[in-house]
């Protein structure tokens, strides 16, 4: 599919030639999948899997070294009273906090993700976006969550967005070959249509994204089941066309274990079981983890913990 990048006209023809999304059908299927129930044994597995998929996130102007270090400690041991509780997939912070997180995580296996490229707006000169990315990678980030320039995308400047993603992917390189993985954030709440979500998905995957991500969490609506359905269909179809797998990360507004399980059911039904793995599916969340832990404790002990049993982040 490399020939798709040869000209702006070719790229436009391909993206506009993608089949349109049936809005009513997508929303009806998402709603139907959201009503599925799972057995108790499957629920226990799903809760642990969801915990392992969480990118535990803090992206506030008031973040301090102490706050992100505490978050990193929680990511490694979400429930200090239960050593069988799995760790989360990653801790996601601003680039200037990466070094503080790295001091805590060490070689724990929990990844360090950093937002970059003028997060959350994506409005900055290209050299600034690339410097932002390189700084985070040099500080020790394993993953970069970049935001696309939605203004450029909505104006139809698809090749510009493609080239920015490809350049950021190059900026994720390390001399030792252990390049940071790139997650590309669309801010789907600003893309207006499911057709645009599908176009953005294919554009990002062709440009080299390792993951496609719904939202920054700063704009509403953020992650929704229908939007995630469209993105899961895109990664499924992309693998059929190219043989390459790309991950999906819904972020923003996913707060309960019940919601998380709805997403896992959708992943299994739409993309397939290969995506039921933290390497291929993540939740971007700050409050979801506590509800997952409360539900997990309920299944283990038979009673709910108080809302203040786990730390508030």
Description:
Pfam families: DeoC (PF01791). It catalyses: 2-deoxy-D-ribose 5-phosphate = D-glyceraldehyde 3-phosphate + acetaldehyde. By secondary structure, the chain is an alpha/beta fold. 47% of the residues lie in helices and 11% in strands. It is built from twelve helices and eight strands. It is globular, with a radius of gyration of 19 Å.
Identify the notable features of this structure and list them briefly:
313 residues; alpha/beta; TIM Barrel; eight-stranded parallel sheet; 12 helices; 8 strands
Q: How do the SSEs run, as a string of H and E?
A: HHHEHEHEHEHHEHEHEHEH
CATH class: Alpha Beta
Biggest pleated-sheet summary: 8 strands, parallel
Distance between the termini: 43 Å
* Relative helix content: 40-55%
Oligomer: single chain
Total domain count = 1
Extract low-pLDDT stretches.
none
Q: List how many beta strands DSSP finds.
A: 8
């Amino acid at each position: 599919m490399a020939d798709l990048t040869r000209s702006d006209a070719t790229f436009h023809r391909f993206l506009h030639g993608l089949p349109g999304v049936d809005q009513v059908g997508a929303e009806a299927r998402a709603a139907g999948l959201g009503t599925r129930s799972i057995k108790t044994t499957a629920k226990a597995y799903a809760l642990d899997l969801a915990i392992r998929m969480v990118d535990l996130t803090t992206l506030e102007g008031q973040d301090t070294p102490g706050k992100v270090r505490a978050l990193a400690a929680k990511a490694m041991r979400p429930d200090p009273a239960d050593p069988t509780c799995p760790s989360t997939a990653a801790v996601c912070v601003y680039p200037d906090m990466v070094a503080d997180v790295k001091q805590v995580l060490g070689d724990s296996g929990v990844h360090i993700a950093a937002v970059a490229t003028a997060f959350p707006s994506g409005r900055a000169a290209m050299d600034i976006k690339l410097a932002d990315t390189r700084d985070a990678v040099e500080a020790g980030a394993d993953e970069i969550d970049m935001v696309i320039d939605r203004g450029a995308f909505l104006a139809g400047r698809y090749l510009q967005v493609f080239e920015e993603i490809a350049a950021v992917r190059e900026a994720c390189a390390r001399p030792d070959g252990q390049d940071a993985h790139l997650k590309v954030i669309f801010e789907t709440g600003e893309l207006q249509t499911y057709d645009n979500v599908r176009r953005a998905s294919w554009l990002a995957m062709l440009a080299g994204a390792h993951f496609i991500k719904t939202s920054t969490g700063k704009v509403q609506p953020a992650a929704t089941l229908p939007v995630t359905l469209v993105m899961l269909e895109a990664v499924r179809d992309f693998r059929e066309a190219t043989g390459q797998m790309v991950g999906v990360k819904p972020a923003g507004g996913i707060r309960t274990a019940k919601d998380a399980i709805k997403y896992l059911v959708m992943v299994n039904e739409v993309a397939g079981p290969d995506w039921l793995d933290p390497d291929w599916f993540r939740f971007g969340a700050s409050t979801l983890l506590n509800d997952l832990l409360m539900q997990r404790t309920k299944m283990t002990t038979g009673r709910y913990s108080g809302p203040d049993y786990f730390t508030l982040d």
